[in-house]
Amino acid sequence: MTERNISADSPEKRAAGIAASRMVESGMVVGLGTGSTVAYTIKELGRRVREEGLEILGVVTSYQSEMLAIEAGIPLANLAQHPKLDIAIDGADQIDSKLYAIKGGGAAHTREKIVSASARHFLVVADESKTSIQLNKAVPVEVLPFAKTLVIKKIKELGGKPELRLGLRKDGPVITDNGNFVLDVNLGVINDPEGLALKLSSIPGVVEHGIFSNVDELYIGKKDGSVEIVRK
Length: 232
Ligand SMILES: O=C(CO)[C@H](O)[C@H](O)COP(=O)(O)O
What we know:
GO molecular function: ribose-5-phosphate isomerase activity
Protein name: Ribose-5-phosphate isomerase A
Number of domains: 2
Bound molecules: ribulose-5-phosphate
CATH topology of the largest domain: Rossmann fold
EC number: 5.3.1.6
GO cellular component, one term: cytosol
Family: Belongs to the ribose 5-phosphate isomerase family.
């Protein structure tokens, strides 16, 4: 895992993040994803709330998106109050030509999956480097600490190479917002994302894996500031 920097400016990410924010209208309940690309969306939505009177409610996917949304001035709600969201916007670590995605680089994929599954429309924002014909990046798998040994054994039986994600400015494992560990699982090229998703979900102790098959629309930010839109 390389170090994540959510504050470095990126024109590609900004282009995608801001373009996606235009899909949001007053009256909507909006799922707010995690990461450096969707951070641009959250900041832009906050600007519209403060300066243009945009009336929305945000549902966050992590402490990171909660802090950003509060700082931006977006009023927040939760899934108990609003089980159906109008739209969810989030980043991805890799996304293929059929819009299967790998998420969880920020260890937030469990809540991101719940929030995106609650939305009528799920939009992913990414820069060009995230696109790939087929998925081949390591898949983040959130695991109950109690089940770590069993899950590692089962993943190896599937042919995966699991690596416990370690903290960068904390000794020992990364602890998710839900109090769990994350395994980054190298599985080579993923030819059947749906089949793999089912296999990973069936391992006792797996809380959630980072394969997403519910992306409706992808906004790809380019270096020249343009944005390509791909729909399912
Ligand atoms: O899944 C995620 C967090 O768990 C992020 O959305 C994903 O890692 C992309 O992040 P970034 O936009 O910073 O590249």
